[in-house]
Design goal:
By secondary structure, the chain is an alpha+beta fold. It contains two helices and four strands; from the N terminus they run E-E-H-H-E-E. The chain has one domain (3-97): GTP cyclohydrolase I, C-terminal domain/NADPH-dependent 7-cyano-7-deazaguanine reductase, N-terminal domain (GTP Cyclohydrolase I, domain 2), CATH 3.30.1130. The protein has helices at residues 39-47, 56-71, and strands at 3-12, 19-31, 75-85, 88-97. It has a four-stranded antiparallel beta sheet, with helices on one face.
Length: 101
Amino acid sequence: MAGSVAGKAGDARPKTGRLRRPCGTITIRYVPAEKLAELKSMRDYLTGFRDRRIFQEEVVNEVLDELVASVAPQFVEVEGIFNMRGGMTTRAVARSGQDPS
């Protein structure tokens, strides 16, 4: 993999709107094509989820869609591991492109 970004993620609960920070970790692994994702821009984009009322799985899918649209990598995988909520821990993974391994 040519790129890997990981960071803490916070969120606003989609039903109540109450904020929880941090609630999990987003890990992005990608093989770039012609463009690269700039780290500072990625950080700013990910922190934008903190005040949004969004389900955890939607975060992972939205990040994947944005990366595919903006940098068109050969392969990208977005993994979200979210802290316990309602007695369950959530792990969501979304991929696009041909896995190089």
